[in-house]
Amino acid sequence: MKKLLFLLLMSNACFAVEPSFERQTELRNLLKNDCGACHGLTLQGGLGSPLKPENLAGKSDEYLIEIITNGRKGTAMPPWKPFLTQDEIVWLVHLLRNPN
Predict the structure, then answer these.
(1) How many angstroms separate the CA atoms of 2 and 51, rounded?
(2) Any domain includes 5
(3) What span, in angstroms and rounded, lies between the C-alpha atoms of 77 and 72?
(4) Chain centroid to CA 6: how far?
(5) Which letter does DSSP use for residue 44 in this model?
(6) Residue range of the domain that includes 40
(7) Can you give the pLDDT at residue 71?
(8) Is residue 14 part of a domain?
(9) Where are the alpha helices (DSSP H) in the chain?
(10) Which of 19, 23, 26, 99 shows the shortest CA–CA distance to 56?
(11) Does some domain include residue 2?
(12) What is the residue-level pLDDT of the chain in tens, covering all 100 positions?
């Protein structure tokens, strides 16, 4: 089952549709304010771990997509699946890896 989920995530990541400019602005605000509430406004860490590219280097895109999509049970990390599309989550992972 995990192998199937991995393959589905990989295929979705390869064919992700970039959000509109307006939605990208909303997603950047979400990242700064909502994610920043736990991960620090500069994403250098806080209640949640740091989300800077150097901190994510050892984590696969699939892992990050899974965490954002479904959250982490037993932690403050909520599932974002009800609020974000798969393409938006893939876009956010790309943004976290390439902030400039």
Answers:
(1) 25
(2) no
(3) 5
(4) 16
(5) S
(6) 21-97
(7) 98
(8) no
(9) 2-14, 21-30, 36-39, 53-56, 61-70, 86-97
(10) 99
(11) no
(12) 555 455 455 544 555 689 999 999 999 999 999 999 999 999 999 999 999 999 999 999 999 999 999 999 999 999 999 999 999 999 999 999 999 8
Determine how many CB atoms are found less than 10 A away from the CB of residue 64.
19
Q: What pTM value is reported for the model?
A: 0.82
**CA 64 → CA 21, 82, 87, distances in Å?**
23, 17, 13
Which pLDDT score is estimated for 19? 96
Give the total number of structural domains in the chain. 1
* DSSP 8-state code for residue 81: T
Residue 15 lies in a domain: no
Q: Which among 90, 93, 98 is positioned nearest to 18, based on CA atoms? A: 90
CATH code at position 82 = 1.10.760.10
